[in-house]
Amino acid sequence: MNTRDLFKIGTSFVLYLLLQVFIIRNLVFFDVAFCFAYISIILFLPNNTPTGLLLLFSFLVGLFIDIFYNTAGIHASACLVLGFSRGYILRVLFPTKGLDAELVVSLGGMGTERFVRYILVMTFLHHSYLFFIEAGSLNFFLNTSLKIVASVLFTSFVVFLLHVYFRSLQNS
């Protein structure tokens, strides 16, 4: 990783966190569908990011969200799970040799269908962990499952749109 990559990651870190805390936080549909677009920071890190740095960065992202949402570590924990499983999920979804050198985690690098599949799987993993930890038990299984499905669809749609929007800004 060079200085330019670190600057891009730092800029996206600040941008997505500000966007999440001040704007996207208020996007809630009927107390069922929540949008956590901040996970884009973790999803779109370069594929060659060292595991230790990825986990540290995931923890910091979750910690900052916990500070603003007052959620006592739930988001930090969910982000750590997301960061830890990211490499494994990429290997399962895209089983090719030389994956580290070939795969660019973006719409252009993966293609639309694979990109959407990656976003859906990672968002489902994050939201399932987050909402079941938040519920504290399986007593509200149906309600929690409804929140997971609605939030995964909502978050995935917003993440896809934000990715397309920011890519169009970079290209112009």
Structural account:
The protein is mostly helical and 172 residues long. The protein has a single domain, classed as Arp2/3 complex 21 kDa subunit ARPC3 (Orthogonal Bundle), CATH 1.10.1760. It contains eight helices and two strands; from the N terminus they run αββααααααα. The protein has a two-stranded antiparallel sheet. α4 packs antiparallel against α7 and α7 crosses α8. The longest helix is centred in the C-terminal third of the chain and has 31 residues.
The gist of it:
With 172 residues, this protein is mostly helical. The chain contains 8 helices and 2 strands.
Report the strand count: 2
Output the CATH class name. Answer: Mainly Alpha
**CATH T-level fold name:** Arp2/3 complex 21 kDa subunit ARPC3
* Proportion of residues in β-strands: under 5%
The parts where pLDDT drops under 50 for at least 5 residues are none
Major β-sheet strand ordering: 1-2
Q: Roughly what is the average pLDDT, rounded to an integer?
A: 87
How many domains is the backbone divided into?
Answer: 1
Shape: globular
The termini sit apart by 25 Å
What would you say the CATH architecture is?
Orthogonal Bundle
In angstroms, what is the radius of gyration? 16 Å
Spell the H/E element sequence. Answer: HEEHHHHHHH
Percent helix: over 70%
What class, by secondary structure content?
Answer: mainly alpha
In DSSP terms (H or I, runs of 4 or more residues), the helix count works out at 8
